[in-house]
Amino acid sequence: METAIAAATIVPVSDALISEAAELRFECRRAGHPLAAESHAADLWIAASARHISAPLLSADSIFEDAPGVARVTL
After folding, report:
1. Quick one: pLDDT at residue 5?
2. Given pLDDT bands bounded at 50, 70 and 90, which one contains residue 7?
3. SS3 42
4. Can you say whether the dihedral through the CA atoms of 44, 68, 63, 46 is positive or negative?
5. What are the phi and psi torsion angles at 31 (to 5°)?
6. Which residues contact 31 (CB under 8 A, 6 or more apart)?
7. Whole-model pTM?
8. SS3 for 50?
9. Percentage of the chain exceeding pLDDT 70
10. Closest C-alpha among 66, 41, 71, 68 to residue 54
11. Average pLDDT estimate for 19-25
12. Residues forming beta bridges with residue 72, ordered by sequence position
């Protein structure tokens, strides 16, 4: 577990990340994707962070499936 955590990328909050999250929420709302819902705000930040650094998002959570511009890798 420590090795996996040490290999994780930390994405600091920035104006660019905030803009990315806002844009992703807009795109999700327009597409009818559930990430736009308030109940998925934390998931939206996770997806926006991955998209912001152009990294794949490793997750078994189906909420990220077909999220605009997010490359999801399933476990």
Report:
1. 81
2. confident
3. helix
4. negative
5. -85, -5
6. 68
7. 0.89
8. helix
9. 100
10. 71
11. 99
12. 57
Give the count of beta carbons closer than 10 Å to the beta carbon of residue 30: 10
> What are the structure tokens assigned to 69, written together?
């511009």
Q: Judging by beta carbons within 10 Å of its beta carbon (0-12, 13-18, 19+), is residue 70 exposed, middle or buried?
A: buried
Kindly state the tokens that stand for 75: 């476990």
State residue 1's pLDDT score: 77
Q: Is the dihedral of CA 7, 61, 23, 51 positive or negative?
A: positive
Integer Cα distance of 24 and 22 in angstroms: 5
Q: Which residues of 40-68 are buried (b: 16+ CB within 10 A; e: fewer)?
A: beebbbbbbbbbbeeeebebeeebbeebe
- Helix axes of 15-31 and 41-52: crossing angle, nearest 10 degrees: 120
